[in-house]
Amino acid sequence: MSEKNVAFTRDRSIPKSYELVLTALFTAIIVVMAFTPLGFIPLVVINATIIHIPVILGAIFCGPKKGAFLGFVFGLTSFIKNTLMPTSMSAFVFSPILASSIDGAAGVVKSTIICFVPRILVGIIPYFVYRGIVKLTTSSHAKAAKVISNLVISVLLLVGIHAFFAKMLTTDSKEMIGWISGAAAAVIYFIAVELTGRKKDGRFLGYVYAGVTGALTNTLLVMPMIYIFYKEAYANALSIEPGAVMGVILGVISFNGIIEAIVAAVLVAAIGMVLNKVHRR
Question: What is the DSSP letter of 238?
Answer without folding.
Answer: H
